[in-house]
Amino acid sequence: MLTQFYYPISITYRFVFAFVIGFLSAKYLSLSLALLFHHYHILPNAEAIYLAAFISIIYFVIYVIYNFIVQSLIKLTILSLISLVCFYSLSQFLG
Q: How does pLDDT run across 18-34, given as a tens digit for each residue?
């Protein structure tokens, strides 16, 4: 009885992790890169924002594809949360 609900729940879990955690990771990655590029005078402000947004969009697309390639939900959860915590702490450290 319980096994018939496992597949729809796992697909829903993957969708939530792919789009919610992926969006948050891309958001903090974009913020960190924009601060990094602008703070260390690598690029002017507008170019730093555009480049950071472009890189974070590419990261988000790769992240969503990766979420549906990984077979293990535990591995997916651990890697997703590690990347989210890393990008969040980097944005807090730089900002």
A: 899 999 999 999 999 99
